[in-house]
Write the structure tokens for this entry.
Amino acid sequence: MASNPTVPLVKPIGEHLRGGHPWAFRDALDLPDGLTSGSVVDLVDADGRFVARGLYDADSPLAVRVWTLDPERDVDQALITHRVSEAWQLRQNVVDIRDTDCYRLINGEGDQMPAVVADRYGDTAVILLDSAAAGRLVPLVSAALLEVVPDLARIIVKDRVRGGGPARLRVMAGGPPEEPMIVREHGLRFEVDVARGHKSGLYLDQRENRRSLVDHCSGLRVLNCFSYTGGFSVAAALGGAHEVTSVDISSPALKAARRNFGHNGLSPGDDGYAFLTADVGPWLERNRGPWDVIVLDPPSMAPSRKAKGRALAQYRELNALALRRLRKGGHLWTFSCSSHVSAGDLGRAVRRAAGDIGRRIEVHEWLRAAPDHPVRESFSEGDYLHGMVVELLGGYASLT
């Protein structure tokens, strides 16, 4: 076994790490000079005893991500293939691959592969990295995916580009991806633009929530705010909604939403379907409704703990606007996708929003990410997507 550089702990986080939390921040470590990013290091306690083995990141306050608590295990091909095998076993248990060919294969810390995410789109796996230091593991992860997961033809790495713009795609196996790819989700069909799309191209974490919405829209007027490429909109339309309006600030995303309607045998030119390029908040202020169902799925508003207070104020304001636009007995499907905002935080923001407009609500259901996005009990930071379905008990209130 290779001898790894040792890094002493200078804060009492040993039990925290032994309990399964995979992060060690820089201020908790006595880092030796000369460590290079991507190095495998051994964390040791004040007595020099082994605590954990992980990957060093020279460019982040999160200096070491833990890969194993076993001093006999190296961070090598054998370990990564074992982790990918465990992840694949879970997906076979939680995803019905008969009508779905897009789902998360590796969920970073949730699958004990910190900083590494891999999503499947048909015969293509797309790898995302939350740390550049994990780049040295990409060949090992690619080899493991090809060995373990059946029917993969290509492996793509999506590298984020500073300053925005399309991401850089690296082909690890097979050829470049089709542009766009068409995938199936519970029988629904969506196009995926890996380079230009958010995340790996599609919000796979909302898969089961989109499926649930199908059963709650028959004959109703549905408004999808922050609609992106129209996943919830297509679900509502196929669920028999009388009217579906999609609102997003991105014109290219709405063009993709129109195409997704076409991929599902729906005519985007139908009088019952509207695609509006607008900033959601001001649009809700101007447009009175009322709607039977509103989906409110904004982008993350709390990228850091410091931003949490302002984010909660924004969630409260947006949800108040949305609740004003519901009819009595209507339902709001509202979400937060930040790990810094808990389900309880979201619930309080929505209840306060209802109080702000003098209305009562009843919570019908709590929602979370699809089960192919596992969260470990020891890593609450991985539990980032929270949602709730609430019924408006008061009457529709116009803004004056």
